[in-house]
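Appendix C. Worked example: Riboflavin biosynthesis protein
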Amino acid sequence: MQVFLGDPRRFGLAGCALTIGNFDGVHLGHQHMLQRLKEEAKARSLPTALLTFEPHPREFFTRSNPPARLSTLRDKCSFLRELGLLDYVFVFRFNQRFAGMSAEAFIQDVLVRDLKTRYLLIGDDFQFGAARKGNFDLLSACPDFVTEAMPSVLVQGERASSTLVRERLALGDLDAANALLGRCYQLSGKVMHGKKLGRTIGFPTINVHLPHLKPALQGVFVVEVETPFGRKGGVASLGLNPTVSTSSDYKLEAHLFDFSGDLYGQRVTVRFLKKLRDEERYDNLPALVAQIERDAASAHTYLTSLQREQA
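Step 2, the predicted output written as structure tokens:
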């Protein structure tokens, strides 16, 4: 799978079977759509392609209160690559010029001229162009490609969508979110230097950089962390850390069990296995330490039970 940023005409695409969308989280609905795209592309002897956007359009239009992002562009491309269903991913910069493009111009300039679309698969609620005036009927009227709409994918009786995943994560219902995703929810990022308070209270933590302003979930969690030294169990806090910080920046801090290596500058992946509790503010540091000890004990118990189930 090749990922391209910028003007796609310079890549000399001769034709493609295309789908369009943010694909935030790459949930089961997205996965079924890509499987359908692959089947049609094979029947038509075409490569498969995804047109996606950065930033998320809703982030562009609601900058003061953007929606929670499920996955970074890097993670999204990693999930897509693992599926093995796409040949190309085209990342278009969503800016004022792109937002103001008419639906007709989008069809002619992007789909026909730039991407040489021959087959187009869209979601059943897909709208596009300035003021979202573009729809299935407008696409179907274009003679340059065949347009089909993908019906909704139901998971446990509900329509799989990024919005529903966000809602389940916000509630701390990891089981429901994971059922929609088809995998454990995870975040990845580089380990950054922090205040190093944890090591002074007996619980050293890694501080994982969050590239987006608002995470999809908050609280204290049992986690597994993929590191250059292997997979490590631990307990993590994702939130504002109100006891020791007055900043409005969200932080992801994880204490790894049985680990003492140096991870600064390394990229790690944090998988959220179970929510233990919501974030709280404590009156003093000893009260916080006592709660961290209880959280760590709960996480140890859960991970031990999980290992027995998997044995």
